[in-house]
Amino acid sequence: MFSGSIVALVTPMSSAGSVDFAALDRLIDRHIEAGTHAIVPVGTTGESATLNVGEHLGVIEHVIERVAGRIPIIAGTGANATAEAIELTREAKARGADGCLLVTPYYNKPTQEGLFRHYVAVAEAVDVPLVLYNVPTRTGCDMLPETVGRLASIPQIVGVKEASGDVARVTAIRELSPDDFAILSGEDACTFEMLKLGARGVISVTANAAPALMSRFCSAFLEGDVEEAEAIDERLQPLHAMLFVESNPIPVKWALHELGLIDAGIRLPLTPLAEQFRQPLAALLRELEL
To answer: In this predicted model, what pLDDT tens digit does every residue of 162-174 receive, in sequence order?
Structure first.
């Protein structure tokens, strides 16, 4: 159902910290023109952890209205409380989301059985395609392939964003899940290797800065042109690395500010990109002609 270059969209903000909806429109239009295959609003990169519920749902609704059905919208609706995840998912569906991305409950450190029951509860409560999201470095809990395989048997759960950094997990999940279950990379730098093992795309931070290159990279691979995909991947690897020199989305928001697309706003406890990283990142943006 979901594949290709799926951008984990930043939430642009004014220098005072309020959501900048005019800038959000510019970003959305840029992605449509560049061939981005789908948009994830209000995930980790969208600073979901610092938006209140009204802002969270407001961004989702605004993105859905601006996109107007041209590409799929997979709304970020994860939470560390199951009841809150259900409510956010229900509200995203009501606003027209094509699917929802739910990060594993953070801080609570649930067991594998707890993770299973969490996602089953959301699936039973809201009839919308769900994408699991495993990012243990952020959440303090790791959803194992066996748990993903159990959840993949539920028709409404259509895929997983795997961001553990363990490329071999693609093979393990593939063996435990139906053929139409979508494995999506959650680590830009690992995406090429994950595609070769059976992943179908990436939910990408880098696509914010380089949407056309990421779109062509994924399309080339999925169309069978592995050589072109590898060449684009090699070009992008330095940018993948630079966009994680500090916690995401600090570097990518600064990159978009450097490109003149958004203001420099970011919410505490995140801070603007440290001075020593700015020139190297700017140089990479120029080298890639972004």
So the answer is: 999 999 999 999 9
Q: What is the DSSP track for 96-160? A: T-SEEEEEPPPSS---HHHHHHHHHHHHHH--S-EEEEE-HHHHS----HHHHHHHHTSTTEEEE
Q: How far apart are the first and last CA of the chain?
A: 30
Q: For residue 1, name the pLDDT band (cuts at 50, 70, 90).
A: confident
Grouping H, G, I as helix, E, B as strand and the rest as coil, residue 193 is: helix
Range of the domain at 163: 4-287
Of residues 109, 161, 196, 253, which has the active-site annotation? 161
Catalytic residue among 93, 119, 133, 253: 133
- Active site (annotated) includes residue 196: no
pLDDT at 9: 98
Q: Which amino acid is at 248?
A: N
Please tell me whether residue 106 adopts helix, strand or coil conformation: coil
253 a catalytic residue:
no
Question: Domains in the chain: how many in total?
Answer: 1
Distance CA 143, CA 136 (A): 8
